Amino acid sequence: MLAAYDQQVRGWTPTHPPHGVHHQRTGPVLRIVGQHRGLIDPPVDTGLRGADLDQLITAQRDFFAARGEAVEWKTRAHDQPADLPQRLRAAGFTPEDTETVLIGAVEQMATDPLLPAGVSLRQVSGRADLERIAAVQSQVWNADLSWLAEDLHARVSAAPDDVAVLVAEAEGRVVCAAWLVLKPGTGFAGLWGGSTVSAWRGRGLYRALVARRAQLALQRGVRYLQVDASSDSKPILVRMGFVEVTTTTPYVWKP
Q1: pLDDT at 79
Q2: Nearest of 187, 169, 188, 190 to residue 179 by alpha carbon
Q3: Counted domains in the chain
Q4: Residue range 136-159, pLDDT digits in tens
Q5: What values do phi and psi take at 12, rounded to 5?
Q6: Which end of the chain has fewer surrounding CB within 10 Å, N or C?
Q7: Last residue of a domain, which of 55, 81, 99?
Q8: Is the CB of residue 65 less than 8 Å from the CB of residue 254?
Q9: At CA 197, angle to CA 194 and CA 199, rounded to 5?
Q10: Which of 40, 72, 99 is the last residue of a domain?
Q11: Residues 114, 92 within the same domain
């Protein structure tokens, strides 16, 4: 699973990216420009060491500095060389929370979602619904995630067949939201979101949204689901049969 993840997911580029988003190969890394913040997605090993690696890191930092934008260098625990995190820190990058990369077989996860009484699932794409999702995400994480509405709208508009945004609703309110991102040309799809408002936690909404997204992925012939899981969602996913393959830590530089 880890080998397939490294070969197929890392460095993957969409055929139809969102408007204004550009995927650029710069040396051994993939640089993504035009999102909420820049992203550097490297291979397991860039092949660079010492001063050459430092030069690559500072070149990416300086590229986004000139744009006045933040940038994330996405690392995984098994990346080489082992001193990459130290070199990122030396260049001014700061680590955010580490997440666990989990992979699950779609056929195993594609079960009928079990929902509490009074809760319904709905796939959405309209701007009003996406703004409701951004508001819920901001509430759950106690941060301004209003940019998420535009991000999701751009993704759905660019590739409506490859992005499925779902909401769980109760009494007319969004109580949980999550989305599935297919990666055509690979055997993978990514699971994102899944944040539940506090009053509805522990009732199976997260599991239900995983199951429904797995059903959608199965219909498209996807083999694996991949999640960058927080410490809250990891135990749920492991109980469902997902397998831990590595961890991922974003190193972020901000102007």
Answers
A1: 98
A2: 190
A3: 2
A4: 999 999 999 999 999 999 999 999
A5: -65, 140
A6: C
A7: 99
A8: no
A9: 135
A10: 99
A11: no
CA distance 10 to 58: 21
Q: What is the pLDDT of residues 14-64, one digit of tens each?
A: 999 999 999 999 999 999 999 999 999 999 999 999 999 999 999 999 999
- For residues 174 and 234, membership in a common domain is answered with yes
Whole-angstrom Cα distance, residue 135 to residue 129? Answer: 10
| Cα-only R_g, the chain | 18
Q: Which residues pair with 122 in a beta bridge?
A: 167
**Cα–Cα distances in angstroms (integers) from residue 167 to residues 10, 180, 182, in the given order:** 28, 12, 18
145 token code pair: 């995630």
pTM: 0.94
Nearest to 74 by CA among 54, 103, 98: 98
Q: Which of 218, 140, 143, 231 is nearest to 178 (CA)?
A: 140
Choose among 167, 166, 130, 136: nearest CA to 149: 130
CB 33 within 8 A of CB 22: yes
DSSP 8-state symbol, 199: G
Given a contact cutoff of 8 angstroms between Cβ atoms, the answer to whether 176 and 166 are in contact is no
